[in-house]
Design goal:
210 residues, alpha+beta, 6-stranded antiparallel beta barrel, 3 helices, globular
Length: 210
């Protein structure tokens, strides 16, 4: 479990084939400062397990399913990634509850600069659009953000907007995002549970009406 508050920007230093997935090594001095074998670290929003580590790096396996649904597909040495260690029970929950389970990929449609902030408009896959609400929480590349605008329900290609303050621009990789970039999206866990419950409620009502 994570909060979406990024602790450091790491760098992928090695990528090796591993079955149908890959094994990546990330330079991450802060993330490994108290990490142990089997611990979880979110890499740009993807929860990965530490399988090896050194003084300033860790290695993790990325399976095929994760590559298929996240921006880690095609990952190469040199890529900057957002890093967060798993939430400790005694710390403040500064962002929102983040699982590190990517729901899908969005793409940056537009970057609008302001005097002290920057607005990103990001495409949203059709199946995720109902889970995104204005002023709700969204995780973009592992960063906990508040949705500042959403497309109308009848729009064919859904989108959301997030407004990034200077701290977010400086402390995460979102400051480098440009139009066309792919980003990992994780919707709010509460919205996903409600959607699932409603699906069963609808099915039950249909069955009872026969």
């Amino acid at each position: 479990m994570f909060t979406g508050i990024i602790e450091e920007i790491g760098e992928v230093v090695a990528v090796e084939p591993s079955g149908d997935g890959v094994r990546i090594t990330v330079r991450a001095p802060k993330a490994v400062s108290d990490a142990g074998h089997g611990d979880s670290i979110a890499v740009s929003g993807v929860c990965l397990t530490v399988v090896d580590q050194g003084d300033d790096w860790f290695t993790a396996d990325v399976m095929r399913q994760t590559l298929d649904v996240s921006s880690l597909t095609g990952i190469e040495p040199g890529r900057a990634v957002n890093l967060e260690r798993a939430l400790a029970a005694h710390t403040r929950l500064g962002g929102h509850i983040v699982q590190g389970h990517v729901d899908g990929l969005g793409h940056v449609l537009e970057v609008r600069p302001g005097e002290q902030w920057r607005v990103l408009r990001i495409s949203v896959p059709a199946d995720l659009a109902p889970l995104v609400v204005d002023k709700g929480s969204i995780t973009v590349d592992g960063v906990s953000l508040t949705v500042s605008a959403v497309s109308a329900a009848h729009v064919a290609e859904a989108w959301l907007e997030v407004s990034l303050i200077p701290e977010t621009l400086a402390a995460t990789t979102l400051g480098d995002r440009i139009a066309g970039d792919a980003v990992n999206l994780e919707t709010d866990i509460l919205a996903r549970h409600v959607q699932r419950l409603l699906a069963f409620t609808t099915l039950s009502n249909e069955g009872g009406s026969r």
